[in-house]
């Protein structure tokens, strides 16, 4: 027996087995297998059935076997058994099904290759039958399993490959339809994970189907399907649904480059260097990876580079491959080889890879390779003459090109301005540029957002009002696209963000929503770690006003950030990884190895739009921040506290209702000398305490004392003094005269007296405090040593420098002995002692001590902290005494400029530094420059007059004198008129 005879005999045997099996199935459904497939009237309105088949005479197109009549030639007779056979009979294993006789004779087989998912053929047939204006209510697609689940068959690899190709075709068609109908809400797809495979076991299939039907997502899909069928709401017309044809086996056309491609020269230069620098030394494909947030312009950058490639290699070919899913990726790769002609119709994506591996002068863009489960490396041809650029939101793909991976971020401000004005057809004049700059800043210079804004502005000619429109209708403008954008800009900004968000697990998305409530550019890892290690509880601020909701918030944060019950850096890294992968967060490492996360402003805006004002997340945000704060007078936590400031400011004070939180935030502000903002929190805290506990309550009194300190830091000494007196009297009445809190209030009142020039009262109070603390605490207690230093300061005010020097020297010695780690407290005493030594004429000793103090302050608090800068001005004063005016002027200039930057122009400390700098300039004969420097003194004259800083009052007098010397009598008279009088 020949091979052909054996195969023919096997086909006959297979045919008989298949027909017998199908007969049993048809009979079990109470149907006659020999009944005609076409119904008697041929034109039923209830249900029309069509089977896709291939005619052996013309396998290039699908032929339909219908249960109804249509125009054209009468079809050959077909039984139900024949129809079932046609739908399954593979040409590899079965004979064709022959219908009709003579001229009407056809031989049909299944159309599983190309029409395994016949939904597009079905829609075209429906348009023929019902007309293109007919509207569709429901489209249902039933699958038979997914390609990724199939197990390789060693026994029959060709059959396995055929089944796998069939499932890939069905998924590819499904993805096309799903994308086309995603907003119509009429398309439903039910597809079991484990379906038909190489070995068909009915019991296993039934088990997989039952498991699939038991899933929540499946149940929801079926509910939606039933609702759609019952309601039958008219959807898109058949004309609209058939506007996209079945994906042909031709090369995918690459998207067009926007006509106003702006900038990106840095990235283009880097790509040119990678791909064109030394081709002879390369032994694999040249690969680059462009990583970035959706809408950052990765695809456009790759397309721009494609033009560069074509200009250098005119005979080269550019392939654009959609890599957003395995099905699309393999389909587009397959299309490359099949586009070569009919002879390649059966070739697969592996054939494409093998073909490209043998060739050079080709360039491939793998676009939107975002799926973390899709391993790209096997899909890159092993060629040493090809070029590949991968665009992705998934940063882990950077490993494919460690030396040529580029984070494609926002446009520069200049590029964004140019893009907006060019795309909106506006002139590049100064007025328009200023408006465009404001829009670009609000949009974070994201290319897609700028393009959409430009499209809207182009249509409505609203460059001047766009920013207001955006702030009022942010959700609409982020969610919609402009009709005037290039064709390939199909997605809105919101859609690109949602694509990434949808890939996140639920708990990760919730974490990202929480982080969106922070200031987006500087989310400190240390902040999160510190709060978590404290279990999001208070560290030092305890008041009776803690309610149970704060414990609930702490527990919610523990569940989100510490699911194991304890803080774990490993677990947090795993939690945050997906956000980093999809460029929803960026990670920055500073020079001192501190970690900070940042979020694009548009990602933040979109997430915040989904967080209503009463969402519990806002309370979790406040709870996390407050639990980071430590009440520490020695600046040991100042770096962490400084990192909290922008986040505290961004948290609405209206949402902060806990006294503990308010006092904690005030502490952070006071520590960095933002007394005005601290007063806002303390005023609210005081109001809550008074309304809850009354004025004669210890919590109320404690907050009152803190508020007094904030008033004094802004020069409102009279207000501070009045509150200090109330605090002392209340504590005496409630606690007694020698209670620690009473003695503390006494010392604070002494400082208020000194600030108001009531020096003898200050000395009396300081002496009383020191006597009590020496007697009750001893000399080796921090509070006792603080009392010594305070009394010394009060004594210096009445020029008792010898006594002050003795107290400060002893305080410094004891500080170093008992509390060597209290560096900030030691430095305060060093600064004070240096000043005293200078006044006593011990200039060299003072100079050495103050130089040491300045350097130590830089190390402890940082070079731009207020204490460091005040220490600089103390050193400058001693340098003045020694006649070293140039160095003194340089130090004062540094201090003034730093304070102006960190504290603001109208802060009392800044104004004092400004006065000192001007005095140095005057000492060097630079009177005009001194007057120029003191413009802030003129601007804030009203503030200076109404504050209680004597030195600032003197500054007005100094400036008046400078105006007089320069002959500017009018300005001098104006200052004299508003002067507060003698000081």
Structural description of this entry:
This protein has 983 residues and is an alpha/beta fold. It has 7 domains: 3-110, no CATH class; 119-241; 265-407, Rossmann fold (3-Layer(aba) Sandwich); 413-476; 504-649, no CATH class; 673-820, Tetratricopeptide repeat domain (Serine Threonine Protein Phosphatase 5, Tetratricopeptide repeat); 884-977, Serine Threonine Protein Phosphatase 5, Tetratricopeptide repeat. It is 57% helix and 7% strand. The chain has 43 helices and 14 strands. The strands form 4 sheets. A 5-stranded parallel β-sheet has the order 8-9-10-7-11, with helices on both faces. The protein has a 4-stranded antiparallel β-sheet with strand order 2-1-4-3. α30 (740-755) runs antiparallel to α31. The longest helix has 26 residues, at 3-28. 40% of the residues are buried. The model is unreliable at 244-249, 483-488 and 978-983 (pLDDT under 50).
The structure class reads alpha/beta
- Describe the global form: elongated
List unreliable stretches of 5+ residues. 244-249, 483-488, 978-983
**CATH superfamily (homologous) name of the largest domain:** Tetratricopeptide repeat domain
How many domains comprise the coordinates? Answer: 7
What does the largest sheet look like?
Answer: 5 strands, parallel
| Strand order, largest beta sheet | 8-9-10-7-11
Classify the oligomer.
single chain
Give the termini distance in whole angstroms.
Answer: 126 Å
> How large is the radius of gyration?
40 Å
InterPro entries: NLR-like (IPR053137), P-loop_NTPase (IPR027417), TPR-like_helical_dom_sf (IPR011990)
Pfam families: TPR_12 (PF13424)
GO molecular function: ADP binding
């Amino acid at each position: 027996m020949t091979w052909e005879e054996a195969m023919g005999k096997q086909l006959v045997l297979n045919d008989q087995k298949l027909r017998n099996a199908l007969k049993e199935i048809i009979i079990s459904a109470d149907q006659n297998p020999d009944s005609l497939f076409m119904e008697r009237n041929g034109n039923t309105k209830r249900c029309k059935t069509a089977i896709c088949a291939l005619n052996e005479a013309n396998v290039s197109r699908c032929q339909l076997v219908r249960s109804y009549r249509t125009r054209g030639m009468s079809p050959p007779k077909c039984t139900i058994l024949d129809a079932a056979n046609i739908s399954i009979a593979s040409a590899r294993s079965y004979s064709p099904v022959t219908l009709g006789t003579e001229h009407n004779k056809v031989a049909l087989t299944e159309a599983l290759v190309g029409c395994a998912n016949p939904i597009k053929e079905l829609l075209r047939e429906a348009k023929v039958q019902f007309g293109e204006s007919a509207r569709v209510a429901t489209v249902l697609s039933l699958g038979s399993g997914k390609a990724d689940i199939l197990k390789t068959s060693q026994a029959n690899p060709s059959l396995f490959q055929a089944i796998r190709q069939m499932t890939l075709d069905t998924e590819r068609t499904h993805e096309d339809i799903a994308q086309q109908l995603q907003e119509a809400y009429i398309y439903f797809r039910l597809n079991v994970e484990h379906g038909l495979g190489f070995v068909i076991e009915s019991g296993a299939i039934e088990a997989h189907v039952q498991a699939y039907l038991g899933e929540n997502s499946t149940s929801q899909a079926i509910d939606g399907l039933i609702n759609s069928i019952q309601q039958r709401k008219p959807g898109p017309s058949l004309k609209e649904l058939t506007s996209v044809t079945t994906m042909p086996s031709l090369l995918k056309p690459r998207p067009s480059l926007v006509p106003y491609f702006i900038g990106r020269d840095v990235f283009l230069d880097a790509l040119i260097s990678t791909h064109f620098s030394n081709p002879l030394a390369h032994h694999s494909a040249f690969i680059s990876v462009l990583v970035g947030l959706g809408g950052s312009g990765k695809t456009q950058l790759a397309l721009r580079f494609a033009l560069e490639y074509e200009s250098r290699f005119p005979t080269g070919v550019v392939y654009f491959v959609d890599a957003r899913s395995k099905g699309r990726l393999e389909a587009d790769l397959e299309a490359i080889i099949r586009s070569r002609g009919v002879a390649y119709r059966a070739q697969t994506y592996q054939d494409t890879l093998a073909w490209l591996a043998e060739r050079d002068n080709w360039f491939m863009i793998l676009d939107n390779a975002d799926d973390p489960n899709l391993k790209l490396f096997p899909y890159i041809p092993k060629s040493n003459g090809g070029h590949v650029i991968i665009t992705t939101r998934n940063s882990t793909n950077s490993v494919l090109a460690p030396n040529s991976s580029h984070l494609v971020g926002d446009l520069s401000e200049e590029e964004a301005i140019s893009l907006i004005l060019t795309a909106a057809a506006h002139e590049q004049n100064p007025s328009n540029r200023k408006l465009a700059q404001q829009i670009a800043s609000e949009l974070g210079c994201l290319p897609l957002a700028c393009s959409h804004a430009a499209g809207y502005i182009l249509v409505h000619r609203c460059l001047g009002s766009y920013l207001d429109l955006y702030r009022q209708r942010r959700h609409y403008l982020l969610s919609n696209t402009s009709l005037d954008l290039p064709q390939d800009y199909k997605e809105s900004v919101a859609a690109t963000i949602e694509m990434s968000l949808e890939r996140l697990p639920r708990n990760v998305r919730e974490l990202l929503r929480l982080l969106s409530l922070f200031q987006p550019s500087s989310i400190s890892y240390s902040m999160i770690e510190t709060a978590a290690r404290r279990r999001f509880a208070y560290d030092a601020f305890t008041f009776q006003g803690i309610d149970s909701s704060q414990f609930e918030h702490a527990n919610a944060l523990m569940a989100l950030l510490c699911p194991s019950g304890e803080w774990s850096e490993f677990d947090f890294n795993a939690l945050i990884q997906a956000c980093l992968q999809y460029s929803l967060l960026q990670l920055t490492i500073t020079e001192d190895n501190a970690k900070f996360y940042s979020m694009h402003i548009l990602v933040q805006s979109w997430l915040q739009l989904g967080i209503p004002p009463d969402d519990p997340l806002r309370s979790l945000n406040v709870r996390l921040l407050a639990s980071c704060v430590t009440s520490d007078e020695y600046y040991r936590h100042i770096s962490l506290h400084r990192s909290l400031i922008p986040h505290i400011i961004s948290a609405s004070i209206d949402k902060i209702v806990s006294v503990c939180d308010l006092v904690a935030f005030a502490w952070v502000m006071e520590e960095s000398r933002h007394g005005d903002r601290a007063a806002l929190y303390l005023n609210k805290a005081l109001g809550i305490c008074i309304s809850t506990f009354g004025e004669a309550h210890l919590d109320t009194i404690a907050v009152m004392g803190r508020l007094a300190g904030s008033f004094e830091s802004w020069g409102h000494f009279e207000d501070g003094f009045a509150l200090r007196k109330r605090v002392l009297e209340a504590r005496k009445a409630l606690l007694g005269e020698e209670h620690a809190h009473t003695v503390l209030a006494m010392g604070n009142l002494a400082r208020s007296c000194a600030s108001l020039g009531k020096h003898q009262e200050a000395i009396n109070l300081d002496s009383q405090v020191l006597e009590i603390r020496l007697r009750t605490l001893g000399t080796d207690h921090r509070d006792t040593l603080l009392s010594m230093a305070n009394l010394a300061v009060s004594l210096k005010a009445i020029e008792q420098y010898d006594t002050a020097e003795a107290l400060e020297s002893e305080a410094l010695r004891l500080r170093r002995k008992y509390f060597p780690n209290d560096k900030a407290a030691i430095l305060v005493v060093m600064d004070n002692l240096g000043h005293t030594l200078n006044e006593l004429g011990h200039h060299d000793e003072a100079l050495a001590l103050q130089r040491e103090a300045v350097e130590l302050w830089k190390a402890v608090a940082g070079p731009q902290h207020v204490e460091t800068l005040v220490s600089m001005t103390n050193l400058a004063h001693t340098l003045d005494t020694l006649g070293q005016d140039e160095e003194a002027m340089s130090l004062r200039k540094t201090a003034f400029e730093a304070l102006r930057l960190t504290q603001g122009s109208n802060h009392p400390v800044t104004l004092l530094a400004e006065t000192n700098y001007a005095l140095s300039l005057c000492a060097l004969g630079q009177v005009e420059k001194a007057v120029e420097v003191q413009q802030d003194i003129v601007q804030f004259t009203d503030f200076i007059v109404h504050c209680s800083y004597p030195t600032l009052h003197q500054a007005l007098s100094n400036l008046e004198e400078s105006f007089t010397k320069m002959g500017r009598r009018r300005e001098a008279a104006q200052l004299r008129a508003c002067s507060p009088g003698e000081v």
